[in-house]
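As a representative case, we now present a protein record of this kind.
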Amino acid sequence: MADETEIQAAAPAEAIPGAEPQGDRRGRGGRGRGGGGGNDRGGRGRDGNRGRRDDRNKGGEDQGEELIEKLVHINRVSKTVKGGKRFGFAALVVVGDGKGRAGFGHGKAREVPEAISKATAAAKKAMVRVPLREGRTLHHDGKGHFGAGRVTVRTAPPGTGIIAGGPMRAIFESLGVHDVVTKSVGTSNPYNMIRATFEALADQTSPKSVSQRRGKKIADLLGRGGASAPAAEAEAAAITE
């Protein structure tokens, strides 16, 4: 009996009936949970793609232009429910690039930062371009109204500054206007004032666009107001937009 026991202990694993080779056990373990191959494939799959998506998003944000954001108004509302009061916030934001593009938007949320971020995103999507004279003022006067709000915007000489208050000032600062005179009559609701102001800005046209539409020279359009031909030509040469 002792001799048979020593022979079975000394025999290799392959010789024992029903025994599995050690190489096969290591191979199945590697393909299972503890194997390195499965983890490597998983790292190259979901984790790797997630990292590349983050890199693309960061690159898009770095390449974006810097915008001027103005918080115009925050309104807090409350709703009475069974357990008490539930508060919400609405934000009104004006966004512009300081080079003739601006837009406004509003957002609602349970928290103020989230409402501001929603309003900012909506304002960026609704940006419009307004032609500016010499990059500092409007080309001509204009009027706009929305609801009970009526506004008047007028061009101004250099050094005048922004003669506007409240929401209208935020629009012209973000738009890049340095000299303008405005007047608001009627409602003081910031939503209506901003919509009326953007309606007045939407009617702004430049001599360049009018000359292209009518098939005439810019100097001919500027010289009709009694200005001399050399002065009209000099002014026309200075117009770039």
About this structure: Confidence is low (pLDDT under 50) at residues 1-16, 34-43, 45-63. The two ends are 108 Å apart (CA to CA).
